[in-house]
Design brief:
Keywords (chain A): FAD, Flavoprotein, Oxidoreductase
Number of strands of chain B: 7
Strand order of the largest sheet of chain B: 3-1-2-5-4
CATH superfamily of the largest domain in chain A: Butyryl-CoA Dehydrogenase, subunit A, domain 3
CATH topology of the largest domain in chain B: Butyryl-Coa Dehydrogenase, subunit A, domain 1
Oligomer: heterodimer
Distance between the termini of chain A: 40 Å
Number of strands of chain A: 8
Largest sheet of chain B: 5 strands, mixed
Number of domains of chain B: 2
CATH superfamily of the largest domain in chain B: Acyl-CoA dehydrogenase/oxidase, N-terminal domain
CATH architecture of the largest domain in chain A: Up-down Bundle
Order of helices and strands of chain A: HHHHHEEEEEEEEHHHHHH
Radius of gyration of chain A: 21 Å
Organism (chain A): Streptomyces populi
CATH architecture of the largest domain in chain B: Orthogonal Bundle
Number of domains of chain A: 3
Structural class of chain A: alpha+beta
Shape of chain B: globular
CATH class of the largest domain in chain B: Mainly Alpha
Shape of chain A: globular
CATH topology of the largest domain in chain A: Butyryl-CoA Dehydrogenase, subunit A, domain 3
Order of helices and strands of chain B: HHHHHEEEEEHEEHHHH
GO cellular component, one term (chain A): plasma membrane
Largest interface: A-B, 57 and 57 residues
Radius of gyration of chain B: 19 Å
Family (chain A): Belongs to the acyl-CoA dehydrogenase family.
Number of helices of chain B: 10
Bound molecules: flavin-adenine dinucleotide
Largest sheet of chain A: 4 strands, mixed
Pfam family, one (chain A): Acyl-CoA_dh_N
Structural class of chain B: alpha+beta
């Protein structure tokens, strides 16, 4: 149980801090959350700065253009960038955290050369076209069809909840290529260019009023067969690789951010008098315990990942269950502190409270995570 | 950084587990329970005076000395001074194992007295200590630390933790409060992990409606949440043992108390009627877990400390 960092790790941290302190003041002003093209430009601009400084794809393997950093260095990176108030990964999320790592581990040399460098350099944005109207938790029930026609697949169907679809260049798309096969067997993973004819993107408004995700309609879209990652009908296995990354380190920076917010909430309570309410004060104390523990759990998971060569384990499900719940509790407590101002959408915490509602749904609902924990960790029989 | 257990730490855990499983398995636990329970169920009211029947001894002094010989109490004393030269992380691992098997006795007070009170390190002496308004194992202790004048016996909720009430509620905090909290949290962690295991085991084997009850999602999700609480608490407890930071300890304590108490309750639920029996061990975990929550100021103090930490620290 060693929580100290090696001299090399501390040096890495110090260099990163120095760089952040120099570069962050030079960033352009944050765009409006509703201006998607501006958000894309901002997020890509930040990625480019990371690239130029040698921090892009830190946790990617060296032969994929990454830095081959250890999970601990990646943890330090996520901690320090968050503490310094650096931009969030934003529109680069799918490219850096799902599609990129999937291509890096499953793609051919040509595919890696084509898709990975633009992600690292902040030139291309990816989105994730997995969920469908009738395939959410039961992802393997997806029905979007693809059939071979010469050197292309022809794809028809529809995707839903596709984050960043409006501004994406590429979509990691799951399609059904063997309609007769058992449902997990007939799925294929394709990289679809978002400017291909036959694609219609219709933004969906979230309960927070913004358009974070979209419906994507596919009408005989031609996708070159060369864009298939993994074998035909082997897409489910390829997908599992992607999902394990999604649940691995995706929330590290957010835990750091939540701890900062919690402190701010407590200070606000001291200012506006709510601090005198012992029940509320104790609730904030309890949340402090939760988030401290979540940070330790992160360090635990990272240490385990270091031991298994970087592949995140089912520990991610345990973490996500605890974290998504704690995040919602945090912003509920913030609302309690705000009192009547909790009804003001102009307050950052009010919007955050709304967006926290998605955490127990996106990337596998809490019920699905509990199924995973019960079956894969506790060895209970498959549920019915 | 490598938060995982070292090989030595794993070996220590294996060693303590083997010792305790051999010397304090289920039969020994039930025998201790029977001793504590005296002559039988009808005695509830008579026992309210707290006096023990028979020879009045529940603690197995032979086992206590074996624990001493194995280094359980002297674990953190320097190697030259008859100790094992280990640190808090190792102590936490040992106490976690004690919590798993519901090992009775003033383990924490004796461990903390090792080196300061004659006989504590070797397990020759049973040492207890006043803690707030309570003192555990007063009648069986050889050495009592703190002021226990006016101590009144309670009919103990946990049959294997006799307690006396001290006058003047919420007496001053013992200087060892931080370590009491940490080691108590370790015991809670062990108990929580154990009830999660027992629940999952029962859910895999007990059948209703033609299938194991663990195939029902309502049961699965109870068990999954138990595990989430255990693993979150584990990270907090282990980290606190490394940093010994008061806020880390308070956090560990809160989460471990919660994991143990709720874990035992959910374990009881998963066992159905069997969970409500004296025969099952589940109630012993719950009662001990409840008892431990009263140590070193309890949840209120931890939450207040953690609240204060939010506004006092540098941003
Ligand atoms: C903000 C946000 C962003 C998203 N971004 C993307 C994206 O970019 N790309 C993408 O592909 N998808 C995305 N999603 C979709 C997300 O993955 C799905 O919403 C999620 O998997 C749940 O599917 P569903 O919405 O169809 O709900 P359903 O699966 O219909 O679930 C409805 C309810 O039933 C429960 N349930 C379902 N099955 C079970 C079961 N077996 N056991 C117990 N309970 C069950 C669920 O827990 C839930 O409470 C996003 C979602 C959100 C909220």
């Amino acid at each position: 149980m060693d929580l100290t960092y090696t001299p090399e790790e501390e040096e890495f941290r110090a260099r990163l801090r120095t760089w952040l302190a120099g570069v962050l003041p030079t960033l352009p002003p944050k765009p409006s959350p509703h201006d998607w093209p501006a958000r894309r430009a901002y997020d890509l601009g930040w990625q480019r700065m990371l690239y130029d400084a040698g921090y892009a794809g830190l946790h990617w393997p060296v032969d994929a253009g990454g830095r081959g950093a250890t999970p601990t260095q990646h943890l330090i990176y996520l901690e320090e960038t968050e503490k310094a108030g650096a931009p969030y990964v934003g529109a680069n999320f799918v490219g850096l955290l799902h599609a990129g790592p999937t291509v890096a581990s499953e793609g051919s040399a040509e595919q890696r050369a084509r898709w990975l460098p633009p992600v690292l350099r902040g030139e291309e944005v990816w989105c994730q076209g997995f969920s469908e109207p009738d395939a959410g938790s039961d992802l393997a029930a997806l029905r979007t069809r693809a059939w071979r026609d010469g050197d292309d697949y022809v794809v028809s169907g529809s995707k839903i909840w596709t984050s960043h679809a409006e501004v994406a260049d590429w979509c990691e798309l799951l399609v059904r290529t063997a309609p007769g096969a058992r449902k997990h067997r007939g799925i294929t993973w394709l990289a679809m260019p978002m400017d291909a004819p036959g694609i219609t993107v219709r933004p969906l408004r979230t309960l927070a009023g913004s358009t974070e995700f979209a419906e994507v309609f596919l009408d005989e879209v031609r996708v070159p067969a060369a864009n298939r990652v993994g074998a035909e009908n082997d897409g489910w296995r390829v997908t599992m690789v992607t999902l394990s990354y999604e649940r691995g380190t995706a929330f590290v920076g957010e835990v750091v951010a939540c701890r900062r917010v919690l402190s701010e909430v407590a200070r606000e309570a001291r200012k506006n008098g709510r601090w005198d309410d012992a029940a509320l004060r104790r609730r904030l104390g309890g949340l402090n315990a939760e988030f401290r523990a979540l940070w330790r759990l992160t360090q635990w998971n990272v240490s385990e990942a270091q031991g298994t060569g970087g592949v995140p384990g089912v520990g991610g499900s345990v973490f996500k269950l605890a974290y998504s719940h704690a995040r919602q509790e945090l912003f509920d407590a913030a609302a309690e502190v705000l009192g009547p101002d909790a009804l003001d959408l102009g307050r950052e915490w009010t919007l955050d409270r709304l967006s926290s509602l998605s955490y127990t749904i996106a990337a596998g609902t809490s019920q699905i995570q509990r199924n995973i924990v019960a079956e894969r960790i506790l060895g209970l029989p498959r549920g019915r | 950084m490598d938060f995982r257990l070292t090989d030595d730490q794993r070996a220590l855990r294996r060693g303590v587990r083997a010792l305790l499983e051999g010397r304090f398995g289920r039969e020994a636990l039930r025998a201790a329970l029977d001793r504590a329970d005296g002559e039988g169920a009808a005695g509830g009211r008579e026992r309210a005076d707290g006096r023990l029947r028979g020879d009045g001894r529940v603690l197995d002094r032979g086992l206590w000395r074996e624990l001493g010989a194995a280094g359980f109490f002297a674990l953190r004393l320097p190697e030259g001074g008859g100790g094992a030269g280990q640190g808090l992380p190792e102590a936490v691992l040992a106490f976690e194992e004690a919590g798993r098997v519901l090992l009775p006795g003033p383990l924490i007070a004796t461990h903390l007295a090792a080196g300061a009170v004659a006989g504590a390190a070797t397990g020759e002496a049973v040492v207890t200590s006043a803690d707030g308004g309570l003192v555990e194992w007063l009648d069986e202790a050889d050495v009592v630390l703190g002021d226990v004048t006016g101590a009144e016996p309670l009919a103990p909720l946990d049959p294997l933790t006799p307690v006396h009430r001290l006058p003047g509620a919420g007496a001053a905090r013992t200087p060892d409060g931080l370590l009491v909290s940490l080691l108590s949290a370790a015991e809670q962690l062990g108990s929580a992990a154990r009830t999660c295991e027992i629940a999952a085991q029962h859910a895999r084997t007990r059948e209703q409606f033609g299938r194991p009850v663990g195939a029902f999602q309502a049961v699965q999700h109870l068990c999954a949440d138990m595990l989430v609480r255990v693993e979150t608490a584990r990270a907090a407890v282990y980290a606190a043992s490394v940093t010994a930071d008061p806020a880390d300890v308070a956090a560990a304590r809160l989460l471990a108390d919660e994991a143990a108490v709720r874990g035992a309750r959910d374990c009881l639920q998963v066992h159905g009627g069997m969970g409500f029996t004296w025969e099952s061990d589940v109630h012993l975990h719950l009662k001990r877990a409840w008892t431990r929550t009263h140590r070193a100021g309890g949840a209120t103090r931890s939450e207040e400390e953690l609240a204060e930490d939010l506004v006092s620290g540098a941003v």
